[in-house]
Each structure stands twice: as structure tokens, then as C-alpha cells.
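Hey, quick one: can you model this chain's 3D structure?
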Amino acid sequence: MENNLFETINIADYTYFIDYWITIYYGIVFQWQLYLVQAGTIQQAYWMMKSILQDNIFNYKYK
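Sure thing. Here's the predicted structure for all 63 residues.
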């Protein structure tokens, strides 16, 4: 009778459940971190381009 519980909780189902939550966790957290990194690099590229353009306009106007 005590073996019955272990047989109802199948090992394959348990690992599938763990894989399911790992997939959800990485799908949410890892994608969000990637999105934040991409947004950070996009913002840095934007500020770099803006500063370069401002420097070029400034040098062109007040040479």
C-alpha cells in the first residue's frame, strides 16, 4: 500500500512538470532580461548617435 503513492506520482510526469516550470521561468525571466539588455543597447546607441549628430552640427555651425 505504501508503494502505491510512489506509483501514482510517475517520475516522467514529475520531470515533465519541472521542465514545464523551468521553461516558463526562462521564457519569462530570460526573455525579459534579453529585452532589457536590447533596450539598454538601443538607448545607448540612440544617445551616441544624438551626441555625435549634435557635435557635428555644433562644429559645423560654429567653426
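One thing worth noting: The chain is about 90% helix and 0% strand.
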